[in-house]
Structure formats: C-alpha cells, structure tokens
Design goal:
Length: 84
Amino acid sequence: MRPALSPGDLVLVDRQARPASGQIALVQTERHGRFLHRIVEMGEGGSVRTQGDANAIADFDALPETAVIGPVTLVIPVGTWLGR
C-alpha cells in the first residue's frame, strides 16, 4: 500500500474525536513515542491494531485505545511541494 502521507506533510489531529477503523491516527506509546499509523482493527474491550501504510503487515502488538491521541482530520501536502 502506498503511504497516504509524505515526509514533511502537515496533519491536523482531532483530540476530541474517537478514531475509526481505516483512519490514520496519531498514536503514542512509551516504547516508540508518537507516530502516525492507520487503524486496521478496533478490537473488543478497547484494543486497537495499527499498521503503517508502507508496511506489509499490521503492528505486532495491539494497543489500548487510550494510546490513540486522535484521528487525522486534514492533511496539508507540504512534503510533496518540497520534493519538487
């Protein structure tokens, strides 16, 4: 899958919105800090499985829903402009 974001792109995250499967979300974990990945599964009991668009498989560990800061609501493709 081709990544939806390019290096340098700006994103807006809605901290108040609940993420849904298929959305890109800002996630924070103690081990990896903050990162943007797509939510591929919302599990029972509040678990979330994520996957980077450029990754062939989903992330190994399911995360608690509390690790999700919020879904991306707007992408400003600055990275694409800078790469020209």
